[in-house]
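ok so for the tutorial part 2 we go from a plain amino acid sequence to predicted structure tokens. step 1 is just haveing the sequence, like this:
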Amino acid sequence: MKKLLPIALMLLATSFLTGQTVADFENFGLAAGEFINNDTTGAGFATECLSLPNDFNENYQSWSGWAISANTDVTTPGFTNDLSSISGAGFDNSTSYAVAFSPGENVIRTTPDASGYAPAIVYDGMYVNNNTFAFLSMRDGDAFAKRFGGETGEDPDFFSIVFKPITIGITRTDSVEFFLADFRFENPDEDYILDEWTWVDLSSLGVMDELSITMRSSDVGEFGINTPLYFCMDNVITSKSPRASTVELNLDFDIYPTLVDNSLTLDLEKAGDSEINIFSLNGALKQRHASFSQHIQLEVGALEAGFYFIQIIQDGEYGLQKFVKK
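step 2 — the prediction. this is what the tokens look like for a chain of 326 residues:
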């Protein structure tokens, strides 16, 4: 039976990534001082190949997830100014940017193409900055959160974003952590609260179909993090494969055990020239084999513990399964 998986990670791993795009959020047509924090379609805010989920509560006029903003207020403290960049504009003094409010896990999704298929992509990186609410709270303290550094300026405070890739619904363990504020240096002169757009390189995370975002802070109370869980994002650069949205996975095969120690057995529907590739979750090729047999045994004891994908190519057809190495 022909089928399409949510991503074509293994196919991407054997092809060149092309079609680089830049999501700069100018497509929403906002003028300075305007914003959108209430997606009414349920699809999120779409730009280029990205979709930013938004959860808006009509009764309380509150939101979480993502908003699109052109606010310029860098002086007003408090939650009423939660949609402004501390630099007063987007990256390179552009008008619009995205604002994340992440009280739990936040995500960036891949927008489905015309066929309804969401191709996997690589996040080359993005520019991030503090938002005014969070920046002023960390600099001065407020009714809920402490001033970073404390009274002496020596408290080892920090505020960060943790980026993790999601592939086929699995949040992987590899991550990139970026610090929006850091007061842990031995030399206090190096302590900082970010107030300018700064590049975050995410290319090491490899191919994914969603990007998971969580936030960490040293200021934690009885009900969780006290620091306002906001940041701003602009000029998200991604790359995708032209093969990802067109290749069908139409080769069925059985794999056992799916929780493996040393030996992995594959049963194909027929014998024939087969190329067999084993990839890690981030798309790195770990093993490559060739076989003509219908029943194939592979030794995988040398692999590190974790999730893997096995790809079989036979007579121009592709099959894909996942397994776990103990």
